[in-house]
């Protein structure tokens, strides 16, 4: 009896090994395996060759599945031929029945017990271990898997070929196992890491913002046209130098006539170096550097790539009619990812604040998604900013003191600048449960 039990245990162990190999191979981080390989680990180098080749990874996974199937069938057949035969006389002594019925009862009992043991020892436990420690498990199982790949090679070629043929008949291309994730899946992984305590709130926020650069339009990051600090090419050099000296910026766009006709970017260093050379320049035009101009519809990630290619720190965004809609700097992109970083030259720009009466004071340039935590609602519309959303809802240029209610949020225009809402005072939307508790409290007080 001990011998058959030992064989069953070994077969279950082999099945667990294949399950662990499969789950660890599809969940292990390739970068971590590459790091181990560079440190001289032979197992990591062997595994890396599999992970870097989708076809090898396909065969690796197939070998695991073949191994699981063979060991599962083997343990069932062996147990039925040994343990069930040994158990049948015991059943016959306990239950008055025919020998054939006793053998059937013994077979069913053995299969039920083996199924439970296989689910726990050969499926659930190795799966949890592989997902919890994918690197260690993948490296531990890579050598047995190498032997299995050699042993199962004829089966793998036939089975993979058959599977691909069936997929082609169904009109589907054969897909290889690859360690790639969509942005949405990466976002979920980041959120899970945050919930699991692996990321601090600030790290979680920065990673999410960096991930969203690929979908966020560049216009969300721009300084609007009416707030661009620029100089006119027709202004005397002395006047330009005065403006530059008073400005906190080191690069200023230069236009002719109006901001829609930007000629280039003036680096303040170039201006002062030439002015200190003894021969004051007659015009800043010879010192202008090319300016990058892109459609406002490009994503922040595309804009960053173009700025890197052009070796520039600024880009002018153009609307669909070719007019200038705003300006984006490298600092704007970095601020989107890292959060606002104070500048000793620019000073601190006022931002959202909570008032004593529970309302919140918000700048009109604040994006509607950034305003959501302050007001308790996402005021989706055609406009990107809170001020634009208020103007959109009113249907005309707002005046100071006008109010509008959107999705239960009351917004009052506090100030207007250049026909745009500069500041609003918002009454956040109350949670329905809080409103109910408030009404109950008032009723009790009454």
Please explain how this structure is put together.
The chain is of the alpha+beta class and 446 residues long. It has four domains: 2-169, no CATH class; 183-212; 218-338, CBS-domain; 353-432, Uridine Diphospho-n-acetylenolpyruvylglucosamine Reductase, domain 3. 56% of the residues lie in helices and 14% in strands. The chain contains 17 helices and twelve strands. It has helices at 2-27, 30-38, 42-51, 54-81, 83-94, 99-132, 134-151, 153-169, 183-195, 201-212, 237-246, 268-275, 300-310, 330-338, 368-375, 386-394, 432-445; strands at residues 223-224, 231-232, 251-256, 258-267, 292-295, 314-318, 324-329, 353-354, 360-363, 403-406, 409-417, 420-427. Strands 8-9-12-11-10 form a five-stranded antiparallel β-sheet, with helices on one face. Strands 1-7-6-5 form a four-stranded mixed β-sheet. Helix 13 links the parallel strand 5 and strand 6 (314-318). Helix 1 packs antiparallel against helix 4 (54-81), helix 1 runs parallel beside helix 6 (99-132) and helix 9 packs antiparallel against helix 10. The longest helix has 34 residues, at 99-132. The model is unreliable at 434-439 (pLDDT under 50).
Architecture blueprint of SSEs:
Layout: H1 2-27, H2 30-38, H3 42-51, H4 54-81, H5 83-94, H6 99-132, H7 134-151, H8 153-169, H9 183-195, H10 201-212, E1 223-224, E2 231-232, H11 237-246, E3 251-256, E4 258-267, H12 268-275, E5 292-295, H13 300-310, E6 314-318, E7 324-329, H14 330-338, E8 353-354, E9 360-363, H15 368-375, H16 386-394, E10 403-406, E11 409-417, E12 420-427, H17 432-445
Parallel strand pairs: 2-3, 5-6
Antiparallel strand pairs: 1-7, 3-4, 6-7, 8-9, 9-12, 10-11, 11-12
Helix pairs in contact: 1-4, 1-6, 1-7, 2-3, 3-7, 4-6, 4-7, 4-8, 5-6, 6-7, 9-10
